[in-house]
Design goal:
about 575 residues, alpha+beta, six-stranded mixed beta sheet, four-stranded antiparallel beta sheet, about 15% strand, globular
Amino acid sequence: MKMKWMRSLQAKLTGLTDAIVRFPLTTLFLVGAAAINASTINAGTHQSILLVTFVVGAFLSAVFQVDIERFSSKASIRFLLMILVILLTAGYYLIVRPAPTLSMEIEIRTGVALFALLIAFIWIPVIKSEISFNQSFMIAFKSFFNTLFFSGVIFGGLAIILSAIHQLIFNINSAAYSHTANIVFILFAPMYFLSLIPTYPRKNKRKEYIEKAASCPKFLDILLSYILIPLLSVFTLILLIYIIKNIGGEFWKDNLLEPMLVSYAITVILMYILVSEIENKFTAFFRLIFPKVLVPIVLFQITSSILSVVDTGVTHTRYYVILFGIFAAAAGILLSFLPVRKNGVIAVMLIIFSVISIVPPVDAFTISRSSQIDTLKNVLLKNKMLENNTIRPDDTIPAKDKQIITDTISYLEMMGYTKKIEWLPDDFNAYHDFLDTFGFKEYQNAGQVNPSIYLNLAQETPITITGYDTFATIEINMAEKNREGKIFDIKKQGKTYSLLKDMQQDQWVLTLEGANNQALITFHTQKIFDKFYDYQPTAGQLSAEEATFTEENDRAKITIVVQNVGIEKQYKRNTNATLLVFVQVK
């Protein structure tokens, strides 16, 4: 038994080293990504553009490697393709580098491109091969969950070890857990996943080995055939009954149903691929019926989505919903007639649709930007609020038009497109300038309350610490009303002082106590939330002066610097803040 365990471990370690040799450029990109992420953890910053660039390079190099294995064995071709990957990665970096941060648009474009590369990674090794796309997908599917399981176990074990050392031997910085996760999930997990992907033969000499690797585990076979297919059948019946009952009215206005239909289509297509190699009555029934049922359901969803954008215009999310609906309908039609071995057509379609959605001029963001600007302009022109490229404020327009103006401006500013509209004021900020520009406050439905305010201390803000004895970061959360206790102790001139946090009259109070539990000074945190309740900063950023609160007497001094604050006006229990607390004992 021991020898078997040792052989299994040795095989896995050998597989990892083989993966490093097989994917050298991918390994280098992952090492770079882990190093960049480690530096961001140490600096306490968010993901950098360079980190995402290395991830893109890792995906590209993995796809080009399987392409080489499938179509060419020449070292010169491999070298040239590696150079091409480096150039493409550098090109990506040069494209996104001018942006100060990764905007939502860049993140989505990159995510869609990575998804397309993942599909290509699964599909390319079986192009014009006796091995089907279904088998390749099953191998990737099993490898992903094996990787997820082993990575989770390894991280959990290391986290327990770190915690034990911290509790029993010496203190460990909390960043150690982030560094551990960085190594496990950014470096180990991808390489372990790649080690589970076999080298697909060009001439099918190892077909038996591939078929064994692609075999469906008994557990998964039972789960798919006898549990998930019956459940999905019942859900489909309920969905069809709902559509038939409401086809004359509410179905076309029910926006909550849209994500359900998209999720349903994804589930059906994924299930179809997974059960393609499983032969029993349940899977045969599924392959025969569900592609045909998918088509009308998706067509209804597409129609509903298109009707929804007539008045409000296209957003990138609605663009992807409609595009996916078109893909799902086409996939359902093809799966209804093509043999199971031809499922690779789904991969080709996914890649094509992904590329369409991110490459101008028909990409999600060019279309949504133009649509939202046109929608806003048409409403302003209809209400005679736009004359000679100048907006004329008007509080008397219909409520529906106010809502459209509010929604389009909110979307355009969220995506950073307001600067590209020549008839909006220079440096327009919706939070601060909306009323002056359009003549009415951001429109809300009857009974709706301005729900929340989120503010952050401006990045790279210097904070003076001279004269204070100590400081700490604390969390204030109105939902935690039963928690109280000591935050830290200060020892000064042979005396011990304690900073306490406790709930008093529905608010958190910070108290510095000396000997005999004597209160030297207190700070009521409600002052913070009262100040920012109706605050209107620029772009949600606070200066050091705006974020600083001080209480002082002849015995002590407490200074609070607000790092971030969230105020939920409708649900006070969700109000919270992160504070830097500086304490000086006199």
